[in-house]
Amino acid sequence: MFKKVCATLAMAGAMSMAHAAPTLIAEGFDNAAALSSAGWIISNAGTPGGLTSPWVQGDGTIFSALSGSNEAYVSSNFNNAPSGGSLASWLITPSFSTANALVLSFWARADILDGYLDQLSFGLLDASGNLSSFVAVDTVTVLGAWTQYSFSIAGLGAGSTARLGILYTGEADAANYVGVDDVSVTVPEPASLALSGVALAGLLGLRRRAKRQAHRGQSAPLAQGETA
Questions:
Q1: Which of 84, 142, 187, 203 is the most buried (most CB within 10 A)?
Q2: Is 62 exposed, middle or buried, given 0-12, 13-18 or 19+ CB atoms closer than 10 A?
Q3: How far apart are CA 41 and CA 90, in angstroms?
Q4: Which residue, among 185, 191, 207, has the nearest Cα to 94 in the 3D structure?
Q5: Which of 80, 149, 137, 136 is nearest to 108 (CA)?
Q6: If we measure between CA atoms, which residue out of 124, 210, 112, 197 comes closest to residue 154?
């Protein structure tokens, strides 16, 4: 069942919410210390020996939260792994029903320093939160301003469940500091579902075009945001 969920992943570049959508998860990170008791999974699977916990309360002196108090976000930094190590700091939501179509969203921001970058991978895990079940939707280099990342999944009927996973990744020596705020899982309004369908159709069209041009011995042009 979880593989079927992953097969329905579609990036949604724009979401239109005419009315408030039913919300399954809405976390603003006012109290990071309470996340584990609320069903979140916070885990460091990177090179052992890091000096800091994988996800902690945000530091308002570095930058302020998207909403709430200055510290109302969770943060992670390069010290999650030792020098020469690799980061793998997991922030995983409680499990939620995938019976209905869903929009999954979060905001992220990095503390930008020349020569360093902060990367997040995000996607779905099974209901148990098994790290090996992770199916990534995308890996992004986080910007220096709060930026929203969203994707949608189709509903699979009663009994299906999953978790949203956000992974701080990359080499510790190349990373600095990243924050995550306002994670949400909602049931979209019909207008949002229509846009998600358009996004999926666009992705499939790009894939088919690339295959056709590959058969002709040509290199497929890159869509905006794609890299070779």
A1: 142
A2: middle
A3: 7
A4: 185
A5: 149
A6: 197
Could you say which DSSP state residue 46 is in? S
With vertex at residue 8, the alpha carbon angle to CA 118 and CA 127, rounded to the nearest 5 degrees, is 70
Element (H, E) at 3: helix 2-7
Q: If you ran DSSP here, which 8-state letter would residue 37 be given?
A: G
For residue range 6-62, list pLDDT tens digits in order. 555 544 333 333 445 689 999 999 999 999 999 999 999 998 878 889 999 999 999
Residues of the chain short of pLDDT 70, as ranges, are 1-21, 190-228
pTM for this entry: 0.78
Structural contact between residues 122 and 184, judged by C-beta atoms closer than 8 angstroms:
no
Measure the N-to-C terminal CA separation of the chain; round to a whole number of Å: 33
| Alpha-carbon Rg for the chain in angstroms | 18
**Are 30 and 68 contacting, i.e. CB atoms less than 8 angstroms apart?**
yes
**By the 8 A CB rule, do 119 and 170 touch?**
yes
Here the tokens at position 52 are 């800091």
